Amino acid sequence: xxxxxxxxxxxxxxxxxxxxxxxxxxxxxxxxxxxxxxxxxxxxxxxxxxxxxxxxxxxxxxxxxxxxxxxxxxxxxxxxxxxxxxxxxxxxxxxxxxxxxxxxxxxxxxxxxxxxxxxxxxxxxxxxxxxxxxxxxxxxxxxxxxxxxxxxxxxxxxxxxxxxxxxxxxxxxxxxxxxxxxxxxxxxxxxxxxxxxxxxxxxxxxxxxxxxxxxxxxxxxxxxxxxxxxxxxxxxxxxxxxx
Length: 243
Known about the structure:
Elements: E1 8-13, H1 15-26, E2 30-33, H2 42-54, E3 64-65, E4 73-74, H3 87-107, E5 110-115, E6 119-123, E7 128-129, E8 140-144, H4 147-157, E9 163-168, H5 178-195, E10 199-200, H6 202-210, H7 225-239
Parallel strand pairs: 1-2, 1-5, 5-9, 9-10
Antiparallel strand pairs: 3-4, 6-7, 6-8
Helix pairs in contact: 2-3, 2-4, 4-5
């Protein structure tokens, strides 16, 4: 993929997608960045694209009361940054942003997708959620998508009228340990490789070129500011045209 100033670019995925998306916006590109908020797993990203294709509005049935005493309404499609005190306010904001995103999606020609993890959370009714909304853990089951399921998620989002670029977030998901994080990232790597879609090696730049904790933020999980700048510069040189 090569990006030009006239392109309309949809950016979807993890917090690393937000880093790249914001850099593109700062550089003057026409970008729609995560219209449902930060999303980490392939199934939730595919569900988001399904919603962009259908344009189906969110309704009272989608409204979920957040847990942990938050006292706010959100949905399992959205990041908690969309949460509002009243359902009507949540729906007005969510549907306004959905309408804008659907219109952008119809006319965009470039899509950048950043996967963060193969692991998903399923609510008691079996649906995969984009965010658990701080609700009690016993309401969910936790599992890892199979290689075939990830490949299916890739197939669900790609379309012939748009160019797609996939990348894997260098952010480490360490909640279940380093080994599980490695397996999770490996599943993503292999699925992208097997589907033959275009790939930018953000993960490899962080893991194999920088290779030192000095490049991480204080949590030793997220890339630090300097690392983000280095990966962005490599992305810009590789993907964005000189003009």
